[in-house]
Amino acid sequence: MSTKTLSLCTLLLFACGALFPIGCTVSSEEDPAPEAEVSAPDENTDSEVFTDEVPADDETSVSNQEELAKVLDEAETALANEAETEEAADAEVADSTEIPDTSHLHLKWIHDANVDGPETYEHHHEYLAKSKNKARLVLTNNGQTALPAKGWALYFRIGPFMYLDEEAFAQDNETVKASFTGIQGRYKIEPTDGFKPLKADESLTIPIVGMRQIMLNSDPPVGFYLVSIDEDGNEALVGDIAIEYGPIKGFTPSPEPIGARADAKSRYARHSQYNGESEPQVALPAPRNVDLDDSKKIDLAQLAAVESSDDLKFESDALTTLLNKHRQANESDEAATVSLTIDPELAKEQYKLTVNDEGVSLSGGSAAGVFYGIQTIDQLLDRFGDHLPYLTIDDQPQFSYRGLMVDICRHYFGPETLKKVIDQMAHYKMNILQLRLNEDEAWRIEIPSLPELTEIGSKRGHVTHDADGKVVQLPVVLNDGGTGPSGYLTREDYIDLLKYAKARHIEVIPEIAVPGHARSAIQALLDKPGYLMIDPEDKSEHLSPQGFDDNILNPAMEGVYPFLEEVFTAVNEMHDAAGVPLAHVHIGGDEAPEEAWTLSPAIAAMGYENVDPKVDPEKSVAVHRKIRDDFSQKLYEIIDNTSSGTVHVGSWHENAPFVTARMADGKAYITEWDFDGDATYARLKTGQPTVLCNPRTSYFDMAYENNPTERGHFWSGFTDTKDVYEYRPLALTDKPLPQKERDLILGIQSQLWTETINTPEMLEWYMLPRLLPFAERAWNPDVSDEDVADQWPAFAAFVGNYALPRLEREGVHFRIPKPGAIEEDGKLKAIVPYPGLEIRYTTDGSDPVVESPLYDPQDPPAYDAKIKLRAFTPEGRGSSTVPVEE
């Protein structure tokens, strides 16, 4: 209620009291007074008639009237003064440029509806691109300082691969306007001339129409922050604004690979293959040859100290620590021995493990083979405790390359997080960690001779230039608020990480992405003399899939080659310092549009023809590819000159045409992320050694399932743990793969891109448990559909009984799968994909907690549409809530 309204009420109350001194009732709308009974006057009773006239002889009435006039005069004067004060205050607010503290501002996103795409389309991307979502942003001022009429802007990012409908925004909003900043879906909202200050306790509702349906909880707008704008247009960060998200409304999905929305019923159908009584596989990955006699066991307390040669010291220490953790006495004088040996007759990663009355004997073709055998022992101890069964295992991987790629650029993850990743990889016998060290969004490794790369390129924030116009940091992108996730691996960090990984038989392959995805380096060195890497006069029009038009090194610029020499020299030196000679390096080579460089004067000066793609697209592509090929040969020469000369160069499949000569020398390989198995097969036919990185089953940044409680991307579909397990790497086409091409498949690699991953806990959630079936398939890739179906129950039993409890003990924030449920004979029938998890439920519509009733399949509750379910670990961590009716 305004001051004017209060004053008017006061005036009326005074008048009421003066006119009717015997009583006056004031009722509020919220608490109405009872209505009075109205009856006709009694004809036999004298009725007093009230008129405007005051009887002249009534001295009391005259006195009352004089008092009333005095009160009214005083009230009118007070009201005028208050009005004048309020008008002055309003004028002061209107003229104020003070920006409120963002902690007093609050946003709420309310999803109203999804709008369907076209009825006919060729691909789900077309359907989604032509669908829309409607929502509202509600901005509330909870503080005392008004948000002024001008001098500010609200920045935010609309969801992945989504755009704001600016035309609809202009139609729906009169007091604010929105514009695209040119960076990755980042928009800003500013007040128009019609905007009035947003005062205390006031709210502003902003309708928003987005291009593409909202499907997952990572889709709504993110990264809201406020800036102030001075009279010269200079912007300064004020701070981030907290936002509250409402529920996501339903959508109409397109066909495969998007598919139907996952719900309780579909999960039940998917999980029901596991019957809850299967015998777990012996270890993960499953050993290839096992003979186990559970009727005979050896007591760990009977084992003597571990015997090994000096070159197995790390493995010996690891096994000693492991055994001591599971036995009461550290060593025994008994005859049973524990021996570790290297057997040159075995394949490099092969191991043989024997447990019998003589003790434990483990031999490997190398230290790596012995290490893998120790991981199997570790898992056997999880299962059997301090009494190991008699057994013999002869095991080795089918693929020599069992990899994981981690992007530490989009969001930064430092040494501590990466070591935890390495620990999980090592335990499940993976051996390659490809680290994406640079991206458009950030540069994440120290190059001592080029400090600008990390001093500028590792930082993100709203203000990107200083007063002199020099670049000081990169712009905010992705989920960033006003200050992005800064950080980088120092030289010491990287060397330490190499040593840590080597001890666990994991090779770290550094990825320096060129010529595309290089914006962070380009911007960081933009003002450094001699290191200009783009042509300022280039008129070529191109856009990367991530929305950048200035992220590709120009081979004609003099700064490109000194930059590459400095970087690869430093990387090689760090590997030497760690005692881990550089054996492989990855150069990216992906997503560089073929329209790049086509209209660059610097390129023309080198003797290449400028060809406009709009005029002659075929010739333009041919010229671009010639430039790209020449650049690639110079790059390989730099890599050889700054290293041993025997480094194997990896690149994504887009770079395949430009690595043919190096392939012939046996010093190159391709990481293949193409969906098309026929295209992959065709490249294998050319003799290219290949690592398969199928996005459908190997991209862990994809959402687990099609449900609004999930987050991630879905451009390649949805990928849950079972999808990964069902992956058959050698089944590229419907026809059997010839042995020659089969031998060119080095292995498989999973990818963890971090556009939607903000924290270490979130990274673990995306990665696990999907990494477990991937490790299984990297070790045992040659399976049929029948094998997959038959072996899944044993795999699921191992994961539920041993792998997930182990992860929980280690403090790993893995994703807990949601229950499935159906109605059967009027009863609730619920299931989870792994044993060891319990289901709790509620019947009142609330979210289940650890104290909620435990679902008992032997005594299920009556089915009720209001039932909600959650799966819980023994330690009390829960899955997302599942309504039985969605």
UniProtKB/TrEMBL annotation:
The keyword Magnesium does not apply. Residues 43-60 have a biased composition (Acidic residues). GO terms for molecular function: beta-N-acetylhexosaminidase activity; polysaccharide binding. InterPro entries: Beta_hexosaminidase_sua/sub (IPR025705), CBM2/CBM3_carb-bd_dom_sf (IPR008965), CBM2_carb-bd_dom_sf (IPR012291), CHB/HEX_N_dom (IPR004866), CHB_C_dom (IPR004867), GH (IPR017853), Glyco_hydro_20_cat (IPR015883), Hex-like_dom2 (IPR029018). PROSITE patterns: PROKAR_LIPOPROTEIN (PS51257). Residues 28-62 are annotated as: Disordered. Residues 103-264 form the Chitobiase/beta-hexosaminidases N-terminal domain. The active site is at 591 (proton donor). Residues 65-92 form a coiled coil. One of its GO terms (cellular component) is membrane. Keywords: Coiled coil, Glycosidase, Hydrolase, Signal. Residues 1-20 form the signal peptide. Belongs to the glycosyl hydrolase 20 family. This is beta-N-acetylhexosaminidase. It comes from Symmachiella dynata. The lineage of its organism: Bacteria, Pseudomonadati, Planctomycetota, Planctomycetia, Planctomycetales. The gene is chb.
